[in-house]
Each structure stands twice: as structure tokens, then as C-alpha cells.
Amino acid sequence: MSETIEVVQSNELIQKAGRAKAAASELANMTTQQKNAALHLVSTELLLEQEFLMAQNSKDLAAGKDAGMSESLLDRLKLDMPRLNDMAAALIQLTELPDPVGEVLEEWERPNGLAISTVRVPLGVVGMIYEARPNVTVDASSLCLKTGNAVLLRGSSTAIHSNKALVQVIHQALEKSDLPVDSVQLLEDTSRETAAEMFKLNDYLDVLIPRGGAKLIQTVVKNATVPVLETGAGNCHVYIDESADPEMAIDIAINAKTQRPSVCNACESILVHENWAAEHLPDLIAALQEKGVRIHGDAAVQQQGSSVVPVTEDDWETEYLDLEVAVKVVETADEAITHINRYGTKHSEAIVSSSTENADKFFLEVDAAAVYHNASTRFTDGFEFGFGAEIGISTQKLHARGPMGLPALTSTKYVIRGNGQVK
Amino acid sequence: MSETIEVVQSNELIQKAGRAKAAASELANMTTQQKNAALHLVSTELLLEQEFLMAQNSKDLAAGKDAGMSESLLDRLKLDMPRLNDMAAALIQLTELPDPVGEVLEEWERPNGLAISTVRVPLGVVGMIYEARPNVTVDASSLCLKTGNAVLLRGSSTAIHSNKALVQVIHQALEKSDLPVDSVQLLEDTSRETAAEMFKLNDYLDVLIPRGGAKLIQTVVKNATVPVLETGAGNCHVYIDESADPEMAIDIAINAKTQRPSVCNACESILVHENWAAEHLPDLIAALQEKGVRIHGDAAVQQQGSSVVPVTEDDWETEYLDLEVAVKVVETADEAITHINRYGTKHSEAIVSSSTENADKFFLEVDAAAVYHNASTRFTDGFEFGFGAEIGISTQKLHARGPMGLPALTSTKYVIRGNGQVK
């Protein structure tokens, strides 16, 4: 019995991956106009099918409630009119962005007369692995279609009715378009075993993109042999240098910590130069406490009041994603940089300082996707950077680092024109 | 006993990986001048220590002979004066290439006044896994030093004396330089178990680069969780279109197949349009046979003479790397493209044709790192492309595709300058 189930699972995975691969070679030849027309059709179909989508979503919501899912998870799972309208609007916005595919990045001629150019091409088939939010289904599909990639989606079992309904609606739209309907594939089998098989499907998938919590991402990174675009974890710091403007420093620290604590570019530790601390640490602590932030501090910070909890080694490594912060007083900018390079996750790091020299040192020596001088870490985001779309924020160093726009979903091809050259 | 050995192995791996990681953060801050000065010192030291290096190399050669190693493998293993001189010269050439690190790729300003730039930075620690050739030890180390990366080398046990001697000489040179001596680390433990541990050393290594045969590369790809730069396998085709100039087509096919059959950009299959074949196939077959090429042909090709062996399904998938070729007559350019996308390894593919339309179709639809019109596939090479250095030829789509020059050993960092911006 269990063996039969496994065979069925494999079949679905291989069949759908195979269909996506076949669709990918057709998709690579689609024009920008054809792709944008398809995105418009998906947008329209989402609006037309709102009732159906909400009805299917309500099955997932009911099952989630029965299973005791938390309010915040239920909220993430929910598809309502405003959210469906937002999805439809995002699809239209995507049609307005430049198509990276076909872009000529470089052209040169060799002494032997060969004319070489580097041209952007789609990656092929993108494997997307994500958690409860059903909007990722539409988001990932539309970004892939825009860049000429096929996508194999593996969402959460808790959102399976919503995801199936959304993909059905996308397929209805693709039927009316020039793009292959098979461009978007959803795995209905959400078992761990099939996910594990998907991680190693190198013959079909060109890249895996996990979207979700740190645990999901690490599971993919540690088990995949398909190349992974690693996104996510952000243990970000704000370092307040000796010469920092007090008001600016406190504004930036408060914004980075409290404006939206649950996201990866929020600040988790604040490092303060001792000379700045001598005068301004009480104001910083007061401002944090006023925002309801629980403070884990070193000995110097604990002197600010009994409500400061002693910081532990674990705190320096913790991504609280909540109204909590670890605070450390340092003797030098070098000590701050060493601390950040030891405990940071190479996501977003900020220095507040009036010294250009220290800012340049911080830029050079801190190893992170985004390094800031006198600005909040909260700006690490594809939209804030002006990319118009975001695949995620890469915390790895290969292929793409930091906020990823549409070009992160492309590769390149060398096109070489000759007139009979041989070696 | 066996447990003790494993602990020792792990210790060497972790210790050396840790030293490389510490060196990497120093290396990232070295100037182009400091790095070039170190490369000059390594070059000089290699020349000064020729006697020592050849003496150590002779131990590997003797062990290889005793073990019955083939003449061609012994030749790859050998370090003699001309080869050591070539290595020293290559190091000097490397100093003359532009340093990609620090290059500003893009700069823009956001409406809120944030000034963002994308700056090239080193990857960090490169793990290099390679086979018998000891020159890779110097080649990989010098490319990494030039790009500010530390390197952890894992060569073959058959070259261990040569590799240890080369790394000792590199260390002697680094002692005299500003660069950390620990920038180059060689694993003396060449066991499979330790290699398997190295494949999963995500906390220390930023990338793994396998250099060697298809089997080695696939072992790394299938087992590594550290991101891999996949290089190598090339099942390349030359397609001779209906309108191809006969002389040019035969020249290109002969060059791609026979100029150096053992390399990845050599041609393994020739596809011929039936209308071209009707008149010119006998000339092509004769030219190949004159060069001593064994021909595996389909029914149409077999009619050219009894020396043509019937082609099998396996042949289409085979990278002969020898004076053998599979030949197929096709009815259309589409059939050729479909065949290439089915059996090719996405390395280098060529069309010979007088039709710009068919060339453009081939460029668009063939999925490969390098696509050629009227030129030999043998040009897929970092030096032929004018990069001045080559890390390898990537056959994957993430990060780098095709011949990889120095920039393939770099990542990027977003540097953001503000004046107090908060979100």
C-alpha cells in the first residue's frame, strides 16, 4: 500500500516536472508582448473568479481553524476581495516592467573577427517551495512567466485548496494566451518525501527557490542538489558610531527595530560606541522602551535600569522577529565590525556616523548583501531599491545577492557570429 | 582506531577551512597592488624552487609508475622546467589583468535620496576539488588571490607530494607579502570521507569548484550542499544547414571534431540537412575519414560506405573525447534543434548556414552556454573570448554560464548612502 502511494507521488512529480520542462523551451521563444498579454489575461481571470477562489480558500480556512491554526497564520492563509484585487493589480504592474529576456549585456569583437555578445535568457524551470501564503502561488507564477520561465510550485498542504484553485484560474487564462498552459505546474502531493525528491531533480529543475521561515530554507539548502537561491534569514545590526548624530541614530535604530519587527530586514541587535553611549544611551533605551521593546543588554546597558535583561551569547545569534533587541556597548568601530561579521547573517547592516572614514571602513569590511550609512536597514527590498518586483532577498553570494528583481530569474547565453573561423 | 582517524581528518578539514575563512576577511580588504605584488612573489618563488618542486614531483611520478598509471596520466602529473616556467609566466600575466574587486557595476539614486551602488566583492572561501594535474594547485590559488578569495584545495592523492611542495612554495612567497599566508590551504587528507564532509561545509565555504572528469563533477553536484560552479561536460554538435557553404561547413566540422578531440568544446555529433547531404555528404565523410575519425552514422550516412558503423541511441548521448563522431541526416533545421536540445549538454553548439533567419532561430532556440553561427565550437574558452584567464567553462545557468573569467570568482554588495532615511 505504502509503496503504491510512493509510486503515485513520484509519477506526479516527474510528470509535472516534465511538462514544465517542455513548456520552458516554448516559453523561451515568447515575445514580451505575448508574455504581457498572458499576464493581463491572468489578472482578468483572477477578478472574474473571485467567488470561486474565496469559496475554495474557505475550505483551507475551515480546516486550519479545526486544526487549531493561530490567528496570524489564518490571516496569512486568507484570500479576500482586497487581496485578490491587489494580486490582479500587481500583475498589471508587472506588465509595465522591462523584460530582461533578450537584453544584450555586452558585445565585443575578437581579433579573428568573431563577434561575441552576451544575451539574457530565461533560467528554464524554477522550483518554488513555500509555506502557507497562497499569494506566493500567483506571485511566483507571474514573475516566472514574465521572465520566460516555467515553474513547478510546491506549496503547503494547509493551502492546497486555495493553491489548486489559483492554478486552475491561471490555467484558464493561459488557455486563452499564446503561452503554454503547462508553464505553471502545482504539486498536489505535499508530502515531505516528494519534496525531498524535488530537491534532487537536477535533470528537470534549473533552480530551487524556498520562500518561508528559516527552517524551511535551511531544509532546502541542506538537502538540495539542484542549485538554490537562498533567501531570508536576517540577523541585522545597527551600529551607532562615536560621532553619530543623536537624533538620527535613535530614529534609525527605532525604525529598523520597530517599524515592522517580523521581517528579515528588521534590526535584531544595536551596537553602541562607548563615547556615544556615555551621553545618549539613556535616550536610546527610553525610546526603545517607549515602543514596547524588550531589551537584552550587556553590563553597561543593564546599568540603565532593572527592566534591561542580561544578554546571553544566544541573543547575539537570535533573529527575534519581534519587539526584542540585544544591545552592546563597544569600544571601537572595529569591535562592532568584528561582532557583526561573527554573528550577522550577511543580510543588511547599518552604521550611523558622521565620519566618512568609518563609513567607508564599514562598507569595505562588513560582509553583507546590503551595507548602509545613515539609513535604516528596512530599505533592503526590491521595491525600495526601485526594481519594481522582488523574487526575494538573496543571502547567498552566488548568482544574486540582496534584493532580487526580474534579472535574478535569468541566465545568459554567449551568441557568437563568425564567417568560417576555425581554431 | 578508525574513529581516531576520522577525528583527525575532520580536524584537518575544519582547522584549514577555519583558517581560510579568517584569511578571507583580511584578503577582501587588500588592494590590487598588494595582491599583484603577492602574485609576483609567488612567480619568483616558483622559479627559485624548481629543483625542490621537481624532486617532490618525482616521488609522485615514481608512485604512479609503480601503481601502473597510464603514460597520459603520468604526463599530466609531471612538473618539468618548461611547465614550471609557464606557471611562473602565467602568474605575471595575471597581474596585468584588471582587478574586478571594487568595481562599481551600477549607481542610482532613489526619490528618497538614498544613493545605491552595486560593488564587486570577493566570494569569500572557494573550495577547489580536482584531479591529478598539479598545475591546478597554482592556477586555482593564483586566480583566487587575484580576486581576494581564500582557497581550500583538495587535490588527488596521486599528486600529494607535488601539491604539498607547491603550497609550501606559495606559503613562502605569501610570508613575504601583505596577504595572509593562510589564504591558501591544502588538505593533506585526500580520503573520500573528508571530501564528502567538505561538500557540506556550508558554514565555511562559499562555493565549490570541481575541475576534472565528468564523474568527479557529477559526484560533487549530486552530493554538495555548498553551491557548486559546475564545469565541464560537453556533448557539442555542428549542424550543417541546407544553405551552408560546403567548404566552410567541412572546415568547421573537421576543426570542431579533430583539432583537439579530448576537450569539452570538441564536437561529438554532426547533423546534416538532407539537401546539403545529397551533394556534399560524401566529401564530409571522406574528410573525416582522412583525419582518422571513426564514424557512427544513421541509415543515410551508412550508404556512404561500409566503414561507417551504425549509430545507436547511446552514441547521441556520448562524449567520445576521441576521434569518433556520430552523424545524422535531418530533414529540417527544427529537427536539428530538437535533437540538440534533447541530447546536448548545453555547452557549445554551432550552425553552419547562409541563412541569417536560420542562424537567428538557432541562437534563440538552442539552449546552450555558447551558440555559434559559421564558427567552430572550439572557441568556447576564456582566452579565446579575451578574458585573459579562465576558471573553467560553466555548464550551469546560475551565477555564470560559459567560459568564466575573473568576475565569476566575485559576488556583489549593495552600498547604500543616506542622510537619516527611515521607512
UniProtKB/TrEMBL annotation, chains A, B:
Q: In which pathway does it act?
A: Amino-acid biosynthesis; L-proline biosynthesis; L-glutamate 5-semialdehyde from L-glutamate: step 2/2
- For the keyword Cell inner membrane, the answer is no
The signal peptide annotation in the UniProt record is none
Under Enzyme Commission nomenclature, its number is 1.2.1.41
Highest taxon above the source species: Bacteria
Q: Which InterPro entries match?
A: Ald_DH/histidinol_DH, Ald_DH_C, Ald_DH_N, Aldehyde_DH_dom, G-glutamylP_reductase_CS, Glu-5-SA_DH, GPR_dom
Q: Which CDD domains match?
A: ALDH_F18-19_ProA-GPR
Q: Where in the cell is it found?
A: Cytoplasm
The residues covered by the Aldehyde dehydrogenase domain are 13-291
Record's keyword terms, sorted: Amino-acid biosynthesis, Cytoplasm, NADP, Oxidoreductase, Proline biosynthesis
Transmembrane annotation, as ranges:
none
This entry's Gene Ontology molecular function terms read: glutamate-5-semialdehyde dehydrogenase activity
Xref: PROSITE patterns: PROA
Catalysis: reaction(s): L-glutamate 5-semialdehyde + phosphate + NADP(+) = L-glutamyl 5-phosphate + NADPH + H(+)
Task: Spell out the family assignment given in the record's similarity comment.
Answer: Belongs to the gamma-glutamyl phosphate reductase family.
- Sum up the protein's function in the record's words: Catalyzes the NADPH-dependent reduction of L-glutamate 5-phosphate into L-glutamate 5-semialdehyde and phosphate. The product spontaneously undergoes cyclization to form 1-pyrroline-5-carboxylate.
Its recorded name reads Gamma-glutamyl phosphate reductase
Record the organism. Answer: Planococcus shixiaomingii
Gene name of the encoded protein:
proA
